[in-house]
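I'd like us to work through together how a protein chain folds, taking it slowly. To get us started, please write out a protein record for me. Go ahead whenever you are ready, and we will take it from there:
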Amino acid sequence: MNFWDFLGSRHQQLLTDAYQHASAVFQCMVVATLLGVLIGVLTYRSDWAGNLATLSTSAILTIPSLAMIGLLIPILGLGVPPTVTALTLYGLLPIVRNSIVGLRGVDPALVDAAKGIGMSRPARLLRVELPLAWPPILTGIRVSTQMLMGIAAIAAYASGPGLGNEIFRGIASLGSKNALNQVLAGTLGIIVLALLFDAAYVLLGRLTIPRGIRV
């Protein structure tokens, strides 16, 4: 059976795996974005706090993904919980780092001007600082998403959802007639999803970043 025949015979399962893969990454990115921006907001004013946040999230990223999921299985069991936890933790570093860099890069004169017209600190943060820091934050989100697309494939080790199941099944049955097709289908599916997500982020950037800031 050639690759195209394999896709035709397994398209329903592949679409289901692709949907689960995309859904897992999207949901983890939402949580990682909220946590990462919050950490950035809480730490960007202090050098030591910002460095600690960056160092801590960097340390998490150095843990091999297979080892991370293996360590989480005894605590959270198999399936979705260890997958979501691992992906969320891995997604933090680029968002935290870019949030800190973006917020520190806001022109102090603009913040002072907002303060001068009577804006409270939360209002300055929400209406001045975060909008101006949004371009680097969005870049961090894009980088995290690309990383998680690949890491999510390891979730199959913990009976997690996604296209990693195709890759693992193919590797486990190397030598059989469809083993290579399974690995190739899972790999190409992840690449296509990554490109689609990145295109969506480009569109989001064009819709949410004013032309003057983009320039």
